[in-house]
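$ ./design --mode recover --in tokens.txt
reading tokens...
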């Protein structure tokens, strides 16, 4: 078996998240595994770096699967994309070490949130931003972001019922980019990992 690593982007608007679910609910994992089934003629399971929630998009999701036979890595993106819906795109593929796992081998995870600051929602940006009709203190947001960086116990930020062995995480960078011309504010969080619902 060959350990194949894919990098993909997707628009998660019409999906119930990344993770496979029952009752034929559309998920990113579901459409990806169906495409791989059609390509390899046998069921294959993918492992992902993270599981995005319903309606969440990704620019660089990393997944792996065990390929039963060889297909040149440079041909995989085109082959898989021909079997995927247009809102899911594989843009890189490579064979990796059998020890590589997208979740446990990840050194950095990055989340980005875009806030629409216009007086009224910007229709063309509605899928990729959250409209905030209130005035925000952007300077205060910049300062608060700086306080979050470093290694801290983030237990106050986790969801109830979340069971993890440690609630300590390292946040490498928090940035707030004021895109004034577009009336947008982009918040970006980079860290070694995040607790369940910690960033939200």
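writing sequence...
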């Amino acid at each position: 078996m060959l350990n194949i690593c894919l990098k993909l982007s997707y628009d998660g608007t019409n999906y119930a998240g990344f993770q496979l679910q029952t009752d034929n609910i559309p998920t990113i994992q579901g459409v990806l595994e169906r495409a791989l089934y059609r390509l390899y003629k046998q069921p294959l399971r993918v492992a992902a770096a993270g599981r995005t929630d319903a309606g969440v998009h990704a620019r660089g999701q990393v997944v792996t699967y065990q390929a039963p036979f060889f297909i040149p890595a440079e041909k995989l993106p085109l082959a898989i994309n021909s079997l995927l819906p247009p809102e899911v795109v594989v843009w890189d593929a490579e064979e990796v070490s059998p020890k590589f796992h997208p979740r446990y081998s990840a050194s950095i995870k990055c989340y980005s949130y875009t806030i629409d600051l216009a007086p009224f929602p910007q229709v063309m940006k509605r899928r990729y931003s959250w409209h905030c009709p209130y005035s925000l203190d952007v300077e205060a947001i910049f300062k608060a972001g700086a306080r979050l960086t470093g290694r801290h116990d983030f237990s106050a930020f986790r969801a109830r019922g979340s069971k993890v062995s440690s609630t300590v995480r390292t946040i490498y960078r928090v940035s707030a980019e004021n895109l004034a011309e577009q009336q947008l504010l982009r918040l970006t969080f980079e860290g070694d990992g995040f607790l369940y619902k910690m960033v939200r």
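exit 0
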